[in-house]
Amino acid sequence: MNIVVQKYGGTSVGSVDKIKAVADKIIKKRAEGFQVVVIVSAMGKTTDELLSLAKAISDTPDPREMDMLLTTGEQVAISLLSMALISKGHSAVSFTGHQLNIQTTSLHQKARIKDISISRVIEAFEDNKIVVVAGFQGVTDNHEYTTLGRGGSDTSAVALAAKLGARCEIYTDVEGIYTMDPRKLTKARKINKISYAEMMEMASLGAGVMHYRAVEMANKYKIPLYVASTFSEEPGTIIQFEGEDSMEETVITGMASNLEDIQVTVINLPSSTGNLYRLFGQLADREVNVDMISHMITEDGKMYVSFTIPKEDLSIAEDIISNWQQEIPEIKWEINKNIAKISVVGLGMRTHSGVAAGVFKIMAENNIEIKMVTTSEIKITWVVDSCLEEKVITLIGKGFGLVTVE
Ligand code: ADP
Ligand code: ASP
Ligand code: MG
């Protein structure tokens, strides 16, 4: 059986007319001889609206009830899409995460998919039905509703594709993966082919076009991924393994930026590896995802430790450090909430030297202060003041050939 999993994001189903257009696109695929499973996100900004309703009730909404609320968004979208398919003369059936037994871990709003039971999908195929599934949601062993984190419908799609041995097509409001978010760099170029490794880096560094775990899972289970526009027939982006087919011959494939982190600097810590372990061990115990770290030892045996964490984890970091300050009063800390983390990503960095130098040259020529830097085999990330984000993106876009040439 030739199965394809298609995922349509929130903007793609943002209105009744768009839902009807998506139905036509699905019908076209069906007419090509495919069994189609469709994963849908909540309509338009529904999830944001549900979140603000919850925040209007409480600053710290109960996590279980939050998932009870958030899962309603996708349920509206699947039923409407299914109705649209039926009204156009096709058999279709919609399923929630619970109905398909999309089993997840129990951490509300950050759950991970453990398994999916596909028996109802197969039964629906036998009845010649198009299957429409709610993205972003699952259920625990105790039948509690969970969600997978913002943007998680991509991961629902890849997980179903993995389970069905199908290819996965992600349809969204842009024509594919670009060298940089086209909302932040209007002249960004569309990339025809990108490797899983580069796409994983881009997704984790702020390219919100794909949920990080979706790319990770597609890489792990070798699921062919294709990202394209819901609203046009232009070819999109193929995500593939390195060396599978020729890629573009560029050193830097793309760029990403992220305004979601803060920089914490701890001053006057007694210098020891044990203290580094204590600090980062306690952050890890409380599930804080630390990204960049730098530390410096002063002549009088003290450490300055600087690190970046997501904004929402600030109170945890402050709690940990202030407890420590009660033991050692000279410990101090500073928080910088106005940072932008900019990254360039490219497999070409493995074989080409001088990329970091190129970044520093552009920053130096424009008097831009770099507050922190980290590198890995295929990426360089650096922190600048958030008010310089746009300027840096434009300079790097031009400097590294990430923009369209007129
Ligand atoms: P959907 O609702 O379809 O899941 P998202 O908003 O999650 O859509 O993802 C699409 C958006 O991702 C685009 O509108 C674009 O602004 C943003 N984006 C961020 N980085 C990139 C990138 N490198 N290439 C394309 N789009 C990107
Ligand atoms: N509706 C969810 C969100 O807005 C899931 C998704 O769009 O993938 O985050
Ligand atoms: Mg998305």
UniProtKB/TrEMBL annotation:
The EC number(s) this enzyme carries: 2.7.2.4
Q: Can you name this protein? A: Aspartokinase
Provide the alphabetized UniProt keywords: Amino-acid biosynthesis, ATP-binding, Diaminopimelate biosynthesis, Kinase, Lysine biosynthesis, Nucleotide-binding, Transferase
Residues binding ATP are: K7, Y8, G9, G10, T172, D173, Y178, R183
Q: Which family does it belong to?
A: Belongs to the aspartokinase family.
Q: Which residues form the ACT domain?
A: 264-349
Task: Report any one BP term from Gene Ontology.
Answer: homoserine biosynthetic process
Question: Main role?
Answer: Catalyzes the phosphorylation of the beta-carboxyl group of aspartic acid with ATP to yield 4-phospho-L-aspartate, which is involved in the branched biosynthetic pathway leading to the biosynthesis of amino acids threonine, isoleucine and methionine.
Q: Which CDD domains match?
A: AAK_AKii-LysC-BS (cd04261), ACT_AK-LysC-DapG-like_1 (cd04891), ACT_AKii-LysC-BS-like_2 (cd04936)
Q: So, what pathway does this thing act in?
A: Amino-acid biosynthesis; L-threonine biosynthesis; L-threonine from L-aspartate: step 1/5; Amino-acid biosynthesis; L-lysine biosynthesis via DAP pathway; (S)-tetrahydrodipicolinate from L-aspartate: step 1/4; Amino-acid biosynthesis; L-methionine biosynthesis via de novo pathway; L-homoserine from L-aspartate: step 1/3
> Which GO molecular function, any one, fits this protein according to its record?
ATP binding
- Known catalytic reactions: L-aspartate + ATP = 4-phospho-L-aspartate + ADP
Provide the residue positions that the database annotates as binding substrate.
Answer: T47, E74
Organism annotation: Alkaliphilus peptidifermentans DSM 18978
